[in-house]
Write a structure and sequence with these properties.
binds D-malate; four-stranded mixed sheet; alpha/beta
């Protein structure tokens, strides 16, 4: 399998995504929240590039069973139903609902890759499920959402862990330099709460009293849902779990 790791969204410029499966990763917190929402029974997550697009979409879908979700500087956008904390996405709140989500980096990263053969959302939470899903693909790109076009260590480590997992399952990898770097980073860091708390994004969450999200986002393999982009919305590949 040819594998490429892009550490920031600007690196996607000029990358040919035809024939590729893309795993978009934003551990803190967009993809962790998407995985959680779909595992808790949300019908679909519509990634949106701006608050204007999100409001337009909410109007056309109708507000009855639709929730507006997302953050700016980590906090819920004014007038939105939910922020970007996975802990807000309980079954009571999201089951059967359509979620329109607009975040600083994660939703943007998904939308820039929409021409790929397949776009999946990856987090520590669904690492094993994504590995099983992509293991037969010929070409894999991991796109790290990063932080405002800059490198984010937790995303790179998650991409590296996915590649490590594929190797451990006997998949032969043909990694580019980015993928080799991600593998080395995954070797150097344990994916746990303390690691997440040490990153820049983790420290920002702690400073905003959102530290409880770190323990949730650190739960490797806790959920088996693989969100996949279909008709501009993320839907679960497998059935939601309890
Ligand atoms: C994002 O998409 O930028 C993030 O997930 C930010 C956050 O809410 O932690």
């Amino acid at each position: 399998m040819k594998v490429q790791v892009l550490f920031t969204i600007p690196e996607t410029a000029g990358v040919d995504v035809a024939g590729a499966t893309v795993a978009v990763v934003d551990v803190l917190r967009a993809t962790s929240t998407m995985v959680t929402a779909l595992a808790r029974g949300a019908r679909a997550v519509f990634p949106s590039a701006s608050t204007e697009d999100a409001l337009r979409l909410a109007q056309s879908l109708g507000r009855e069973d639709t929730l507006l979700c997302g953050e700016r500087r980590g906090l819920r956008i004014q007038g939105y139903d939910l922020g970007n904390s996975p802990l807000e996405y309980t079954r009571e709140v999201v089951e059967g609902r359509r979620l329109i989500m607009n975040t600083t980096n994660g939703t943007r990263a998904i939308l820039v890759m929409e021409d790929a053969d397949a776009v999946l959302a990856l987090a520590f939470l669904n690492l094993g499920a994504v590995a099983s899903e992509v293991r037969e693909r010929e070409r894999l790109i991991c796109l790290c959402a990063g932080r405002e076009d800059a490198f984010a260590l937790e995303d790179a480590v998650c991409a590296g862990l996915l590649l490590q997992r594929l190797r451990a399952e006997g998949v032969e990898l043909d990694p580019d330099d980015g993928a080799r770097a991600a593998l080395a980073l995954a070797q150097a860091h344990e994916p746990n709460e303390a690691f997440l708390a040490s990153t820049l994004a983790g420290r920002a969450l702690l400073a905003s009293e959102l530290g409880a999200d770190l323990a949730w986002c650190a739960r490797v393999d806790a959920l088996a849902v693989v969100p996949v982009l279909r008709d501009r919305m993320l839907v679960p590949l497998s059935e939601p779990e309890a």
